[in-house]
Amino acid sequence: MKEESSGKILIKGMWIIIAFSVLDLLIHFYSNLFANYGFFMDEFYYIACSKRLAAGYVDQPPLSIYILALSRLLFGDSLFAIRLLPALSSAVTVFITGLMVKKLNGKNTALVIACVSLIAAPIFGAMNTFYSMNSFDWLLWSLTAYLIIVLIQDKKEKLWIWIGIVMGLGLLNKVGFLWLGFGFAVGLLFTSERKYLKTRWPYLAAVIALLIFSPFIIWNLTHNMAHLEFIRNATSEKYSSLNAISFIAGLFLILNPLTAAVWLSGIYYFFFQKDGKQIRILGIIFLVSFIILIINGHSKSEYLAPAFPVLFAGGGIMFEKWSRLKFGALIKYPVPAIIFLSLVFLSPLSIPILPVEKYINYTESIGLKPSSSENKELDELPQFYADMFGWENMASTVSKVYSSLPPEEQENTVVFTQNYGEAGAIEYYSKKYKLPPVISGHNNYWLWGYGNATKNSIIIIVGGNKTDHLKSFNSVEEASVIKSAYAMPYENNLPVYICQGLKRPVKDTWPGVKHYD
C-alpha cells in the first residue's frame, strides 16, 4: 500500500517536471544548432583522448572519455553530436531535481520554483553547453541525492548497491565526487541513519564504489601520480589568486543572485524544518563539501555547483510552505516569475544563444565586461566564449605552412603546440586540411609522446618567440601569423615557425616541455 501511495505522489505534477526538462533541452538544442559558436577548446582535447582510451588521464578520470568514444561511434563528431549528451544530461538533471521535490512531498509551486531556479543558474547552463565531465557531475550528484532520499524514506536497504554504483561512477567521472562521499560518511555518523553502520550495506556500497574507481587509482600509481601533480600545479598557478571570499562571492554570482533565496531556504529546510530534518544528511553533505573547498583555499566556485540541485528542491518546498501563509500570494506567482525573467536575461551570458555580434552588443548595453576564471587577458568576449573561436582558422593556417614545404620535407615534419586545445584542434581538422602529426607537452599530450619526431625532423611550432626557439634549433623561420577574430588574445596574432636543426635529440628535450596544468 505504501509503494502505491508513493507512486501516486510521483505521478502528480509530472507534467511540470517534463515541461521544464524539455525547455532546458530545447535551449541547448537551439544553441548547438543555430548559435554558430565553435567547439570549446577542451572539447578538442576530449575528442583526442577518446581516440586513445586508457584507464586514466592527467587531468581527469576516464568515464566521460569512454562515454564520448561511444557517442562518437554512434553519432559522429559534429558539434551537435558532441554536445548531444551534455544537453540530454542537463535535461535529466532537471528531471531528477523535480523527482526529488515530489519525493519530499512538494507540490506544483515547489516544482516550478526548484526547476526554474536550476535552469536559471548560469553555471548550470554553461557546464551543459559543451562536452566535459562536468555535465555528468551534475547528473550523478543529483542522482545520488535522489537515491539517498528514497533510501531514507522507503528504507529499501538494497538501494545501497545502487548508491555504491552511482558513487563509483561519480568518482570515475570526476575526483571531486570524493567530497560527496566524505560528506555522506559524516552524515551517517551524525544522524539517525548511523543505524546502517551496524549493517553490511554501507560497507558493500563503499567497496563497490572503490572497485569502480580503482582503475584510475592504479593508473595514477603507474604514472607517477600524474593527476595529483596536475591538481597541485593548477592550484598553485592558474587558481592561486582565488580565496575563500572569492569562492563564496562566486557562488552567488554563478548560481544567479536571484536564486540565492531559494537555495539558502534549502539549507534551512534540511537543517531546521521538521520534515526536512528527517533527511538532514543531505544538508550535511553540502556543508561538509563546502568546508572542504573553503579549507583548500584556492577553490573555484563551480566545484561546489553540482551540490545545489538538492538545495533548490528543498528551497522550493520551503517557498511552497510559505506560499500557504497569509501573504503567500506574494510568493506563489511572483517568485518563479522573477526567476524566470532572470533566466531570459542571463541565458545569453552562459549559453551561446545569441550570434556573437549581438552578444557583444547585448553585454555592452548592460555594461558587462568580459571575465576570465584564470586571470587571462581578454578582448571582446569572456574566456568561456572566446575559447570557442579561432580553432579552424589556426588549423588552416598551419596547413598552409605545412603545404609550403617540399614533399620530401613534409614526410619528416611534425607540429608542436603550446597547449592541448591547439593540438586537439589541429588533430581534429586534419580530416579537412592537409596537416602533419601534432605533438605537445601539455597534459596527456606529453604522455602520448613525440611520435616519430627525430633530431632531423622539421618542427612547425605554433606560438612562442623566435629568440627562445633559436636556443633549441639552428634555423627558425617565421612562416605565418594566425589571426582569429573573437579568439582569446593569446591565441590571436600567433606566429607559426618552421624550425630545423634540433640541437639535442628529441628524447632529451621532451622531459623539459612537460606541463601538467
Structure, described:
The protein is of the alpha/beta class. It has 28 helices and five strands. The protein has a five-stranded mixed β-sheet, with helices on one face. β1, α25 and β2 form a beta-alpha-beta unit. α10 packs parallel to α12 and α11 packs across α17.
Brief overview, please?
With 517 residues, the chain is an alpha/beta fold.
- Strands, count: 5
Helices, by number, come to 28
Helix/strand structural class: alpha/beta
Shape: globular
Low-pLDDT segments: none
Q: Helix coverage percent of residues?
A: 55-70%
Portion of residues in beta strands equals 5-15%
Mean pLDDT: 94
Q: How would you characterize the largest beta sheet? A: 5 strands, mixed
Structural domain tally = 2
Please report the distance between the alpha carbons of the first and last residues: 55 Å
Strand order of the largest sheet: 2-1-3-5-4
Give Rg in angstroms.
25 Å
List the helices and strands and how they pair.
Layout: H1 2-11, H2 14-34, H3 41-50, H4 63-75, H5 79-82, H6 84-103, H7 108-120, H8 122-127, H9 133-154, H10 159-173, H11 177-189, H12 201-221, H13 226-236, H14 244-254, H15 260-272, H16 274-277, H17 280-296, H18 309-323, H19 329-332, H20 334-350, H21 356-365, H22 383-386, H23 391-403, H24 407-410, E1 413-417, H25 420-428, E2 438-440, H26 444-447, E3 458-462, H27 466-469, E4 473-482, E5 494-502, H28 506-509
Parallel strand pairs: 1-2, 1-3
Antiparallel strand pairs: 3-5, 4-5
Helix pairs in contact: 2-6, 2-7, 3-4, 3-25, 6-7, 6-9, 6-18, 7-18, 7-20, 9-10, 10-12, 11-17, 15-17, 15-18, 23-25
